């Protein structure tokens, strides 16, 4: 169902995604201001309104419109760099999950304290079209999760927009992302690197659950 929500980012389910959403709104506000002001001036010159000799060859005016944008860039750049480094920071993870991209499914390994391994194929004829898998990735909520990402054949990309994570799955290389799920629920992602004919059919489905339930799931897994 198409709604106005489709124009926005997905609801944040992790603190970092909240920060990314704030940064997006902050940047868009500045962008709209710049487009309005520049657009107004452009139209004014087009129709010969608002132009007089004070605006031509004016040193103070040129100084002003050089210095102001440089400050605008700083106000965008500083929070952007802060976020970039924050996203890369590894906080002490509660669990580590390894995910391997294949043509065309993801496989998962919970190998730090269990021997759980499974493949996650797309669930067909499901009302969650192109988004659900047969074996969902279970994670404990309110815990720091680390995901190690690699691929077995070609380059894929592992993404979950609600958690604000996306990393390439490259054969022969181990990439790392981490996130913190603030609420229980189902969170969806799709492969984000064109990897072949069935690229659209290898979704990522995360089930964020109460840590007690997660421990039960680990104990009962066979
Ligand atoms: Cu793909």
Bound small molecules, deduplicated? copper (II) ion
- Largest sheet geometry: 5 strands, mixed
Output the CATH topology of the largest domain: Immunoglobulin-like
The ordered H/E elements are: HHEEEEEEEEEEH
Structural class: alpha+beta
The number of helices is 3
Instruction: Provide the β-strand percentage band.
Output: 25-35%
Helix fraction bin: 25-40%
Family: Belongs to the cytochrome c oxidase subunit 2 family.
Subcellular location: Mitochondrion inner membrane
InterPro entries: CcO_II, CcO_II-like_C, CcO_II_C, Copper_CuA, Cupredoxin, Cyt_c_oxidase_su2_TM_dom, Cyt_c_oxidase_su2_TM_sf
Domain Cytochrome oxidase subunit II transmembrane region profile: 1-91
Describe what you observe in this structure.
- This protein has three helices and ten strands.
- Strands 3-2-1-5-8 form a five-stranded mixed β-sheet, with no helix packed on it. Strands 4-10-9 form a three-stranded mixed β-sheet, covered by helices on one side. Strands 6-7 form a two-stranded antiparallel sheet.
- It has two domains: 12-88, Helix Hairpins; 95-220, Sandwich (Immunoglobulin-like), CATH 2.60.40.
- Helix 1 packs antiparallel against helix 2.
- The relative contact order is 0.15.
- It is an alpha+beta fold and 222 residues long.
- Bound molecules: copper (II) ion (CU).
- The site of copper (II) ion has 6 residues, from loops.
């Amino acid at each position: 169902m198409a709604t106005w929500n489709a124009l926005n980012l997905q609801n944040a389910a992790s603190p970092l995604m909240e920060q990314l959403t704030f940064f997006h709104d902050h940047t868009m506000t500045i962008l709209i201001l710049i487009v309005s002001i520049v657009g107004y001036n452009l139209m004014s010159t087009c129709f010969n309104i608002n132009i007089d000799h004070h605006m031509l060859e004016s040193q103070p005016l040129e100084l002003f419109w050089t210095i102001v944008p440089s400050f605008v860039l700083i106000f965008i750049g500083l929070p952007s760099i802060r976020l970039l480094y924050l996203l890369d920071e590894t906080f002490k993870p509660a669990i580590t999950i390894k995910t391997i991209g294949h043509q065309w499914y993801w496989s998962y390994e919970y190998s730090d304290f269990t021997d759980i391994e499974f493949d996650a194929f797309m669930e067909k004829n499901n009302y969650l079209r192109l988004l659900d898998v047969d074996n969902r990735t279970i994670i404990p909520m309110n815990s720091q999760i680390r995901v190690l990402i690699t691929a077995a054949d070609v380059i894929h990309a592992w993404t979950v927009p609600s958690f604000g994570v996306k990393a390439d799955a490259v054969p022969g290389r181990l990439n790392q992302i981490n996130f913190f799920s603030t609420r229980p629920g189902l969170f969806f992602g799709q492969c984000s690197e064109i990897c072949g004919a069935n690229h659209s059919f290898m979704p990522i489905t995360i089930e964020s659950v109460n840590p007690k339930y997660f421990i039960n799931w680990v104990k009962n897994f066979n």
